[in-house]
């Protein structure tokens, strides 16, 4: 465990050096977690991008994706607990390297990509490693940015997975030109090229990431900012640090607001991955774009425009949360989820045909805007509901709920719905998920975290 051991607090630097170094390192660690988490999304769930390319049924694609999400959900909580006591620079970079390696092997070794069993097994492994990505980023945010500025930096950081998700189809499309012309060659290329890129990126991340401020001779962020912490959820670092069992018992399982937040996250993830996983296939089923390659590009385009809309959605959600709702994530979520319901109904009734491709893309962009605000707030709000020392565990637990319950329904469950009940039933599942997400996000509301009226 020495490789992962959290670096100890060292002697405080001189005041002049602190003032010079603190701003520089804050930008450096942010660049590190942004690029790092973006890289994780290059190799997170390539089957979603390829659902219109792979010659598999919706159920088979759902089984493979579900395997990755299931192991990721469990790993995110375990990794969150470990990350709270680990060196974030090692944790973040090693996970990215290993995930890139697994994806490279999926594409490089013959037979894996044509076997549902082998493919699912490798995705179980990839999902577990992917769980190492979010917790060190969350830890970095709570230790390097104080409460009132954290939502701004967290919003910007969360853009990383939209950028990564939007670039993934571009990288995959770029790789098609180097690995032959068959569908199998294209599918293998979609894993090899991003995998190699992520392994290279992991080296850069290792050398620019820094663990806690106190590990490099800087004071805690609240002390440097001159802020007095009045609520435990807003972070403090003084006093003895609790053990992992004590954190779980004191700050996790007895925290009803956190549990409600996790449940709302599950329903939001049904929306997120229900759209991400099946929008490409829905487009390929409802459109008749000329030429096989054009059909592939049109279906993958649905994936990209949804992620692009998510960038605007997270920026808007962060702005409205502060300016309109005084830092109330649940109230902001309610607004965005209500918009999601309206857009899902509109998307349901878009006519089939190539001439409506622009309308499909327009609604998918708006759906990305509406869904990704609530997605961003799952991990961020869960961290606000607990003290600093439990931030990784809280964000990990919310991720576990989201991926185990939400993503299983969105991938395997909805794959069965698509195959046996059709797209109409699929839209009903998505709309009901938005309704239940509204109910549970309002139940999770903690008024003490909201800013006072000025």
Automatic annotation (TrEMBL):
One of its GO terms (cellular component) is plasma membrane. Gene3D superfamilies: MFS general substrate transporter like domains. One of its GO terms (biological process) is phosphate ion transmembrane transport. The keyword Transcription regulation does not apply. Keywords: Cell membrane, Membrane, Transmembrane, Transmembrane helix. Pfam families: MFS_1. InterPro entries: MFS, MFS_dom, MFS_trans_sf, OPA_Antiporter, Sugar_P_transporter. The chain crosses the membrane at residues 21-43, 90-113, 125-144, 156-179, 191-208, 258-280, 300-322, 334-350, 356-381, 393-414, 420-443. The keyword Ubl conjugation does not apply. It is found in: Endomembrane system. Residues 25-449 form the Major facilitator superfamily (MFS) profile domain. CDD domains: MFS_GlpT. Signal peptide: none annotated. One of its GO terms (molecular function) is glucose 6-phosphate:phosphate antiporter activity. It is a multi-pass membrane protein. PROSITE patterns: MFS (PS50850). This is Glycerol-3-phosphate transporter.
């Amino acid at each position: 465990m020495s490789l992962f051991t959290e670096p100890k607090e060292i002697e405080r630097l001189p005041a002049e050096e602190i003032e010079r170094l603190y701003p520089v390192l804050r930008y450096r660690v942010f660049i590190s977690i942004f690029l790092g988490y973006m890289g994780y999304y290059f190799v997170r769930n390539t089957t979603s991008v390829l659902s219109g390319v792979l010659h598999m049924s919706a159920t088979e694609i759902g089984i493979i994706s579900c395997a990755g999400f299931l192991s990721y959900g469990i790993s995110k909580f375990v990794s969150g607990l470990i990350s709270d006591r680990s060196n974030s620079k090692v944790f973040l970079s090693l996970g990215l390297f290993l995930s890139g390696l697994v994806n490279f092997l999926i594409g490089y070794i013959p037979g894996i990509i044509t076997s549902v069993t082998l493919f699912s097994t490798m995705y179980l492994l990839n999902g577990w490693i992917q769980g190492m990505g979010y917790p060190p980023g969350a830890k970095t945010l709570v230790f390097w940015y104080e409460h009132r500025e954290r939502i701004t930096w967290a919003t910007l950081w969360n853009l990383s997975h939209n950028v990564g998700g939007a670039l993934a189809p571009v990288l995959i499309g770029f790789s098609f030109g180097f690995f032959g012309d068959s569908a199998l060659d294209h599918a293998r290329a979609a894993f090899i090229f991003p995998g190699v890129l992520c392994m290279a990126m992991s080296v850069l991340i290792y050398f620019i990431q820094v663990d806690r401020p106190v590990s490099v001779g800087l004071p805690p962020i609240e002390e440097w900012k001159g802020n007095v912490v009045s609520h435990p959820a807003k972070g403090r670092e003084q006093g003895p640090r609790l053990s992992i069992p004590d954190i779980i018992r004191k700050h996790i399982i007895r925290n009803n607001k956190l549990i409600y937040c996790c449940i709302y996250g599950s329903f939001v993830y049904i929306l997120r991955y229900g759209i991400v996983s099946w929008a490409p296939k829905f487009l390929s089923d409802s459109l008749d774009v000329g030429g096989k390659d054009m059909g592939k590009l049109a279906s993958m385009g649905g994936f990209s425009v949804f992620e692009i809309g998510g960038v605007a959605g997270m920026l808007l959600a962060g702005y409205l949360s502060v300016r309109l709702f005084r830092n109330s994530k649940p109230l902001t979520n309610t607004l965005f989820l209500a918009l999601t319901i309206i857009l899902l109904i509109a998307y349901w009734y878009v006519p089939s045909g190539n001439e409506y491709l622009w309308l499909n893309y327009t609604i998918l962009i708006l759906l990305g805007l509406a869904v990704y605000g609530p997605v961003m707030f799952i991990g961020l709000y869960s961290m606000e509901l607990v003290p600093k020392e439990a931030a990784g565990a809280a964000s990990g637990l919310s991720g576990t709920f989201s991926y185990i319950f939400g993503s299983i329904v969105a991938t395997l469950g909805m794959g069965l719905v698509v195959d046996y009940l059709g797209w109409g039933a699929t839209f009903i599942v998505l709309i009901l998920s938005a309704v239940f997400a509204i109910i549970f996000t309002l139940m999770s509301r903690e008024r003490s975290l909201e800013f006072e009226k000025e």
